[in-house]
Amino acid sequence: MPSILCESLVQRITDCTRRQASAQNSAVCISVVDAAGLLKGFLRMDNAVPGAIDVAIKKPVPPHYFKPTASNSANRRGPTAQPIPLSQPTAD
Q1: pLDDT in tens, 20-58
Q2: What distance in Å separates the CA atoms of residue 80 and residue 51, rounded to the nearest whole number?
C-alpha cells in the first residue's frame, strides 16, 4: 500500500513546523510519522537539546490512537460547531 505521506509533504510539514518553532524562539526536534506510526521525517533544529531527539522519535503516535474528544469532534464538524458534551455534570 503506497503511503499518502510522500517526501514532498513530509518536507512541507517539517518546514512549516520549523518556521513556527523559530517564530516562538524555540529550538525543537521535529518528527513526522505515517499512519502506522513509522518515522517518515526528522529534523533537529540548531540548538535543540540532545535529549529532545529521543522524545521526538519515540513519542509520536498516529492520529487514530487518540480517543475522540469534544474539542477534536468540533473541529471535524466545522469551525462554528459547538463542542459535544461527553458527560453531564453531577450534583453533589
Answers
A1: 999 999 999 999 988 778 889 999 999 999 888 888 887
A2: 40
- Neighbouring C-beta atoms of residue 14, cutoff 10 Å: 17
d(CA 3, CA 37): 12
What separation in angstroms does the CA of 72 have from each of 32, 60, 64, 83?
Answer: 20, 18, 12, 8
9 C-beta neighbours (distance < 10 Å), count: 14
- pTM of this prediction exceeds 0.70: no
Torsion of CA 23, 26, 32, 38, to 10 degrees: -170
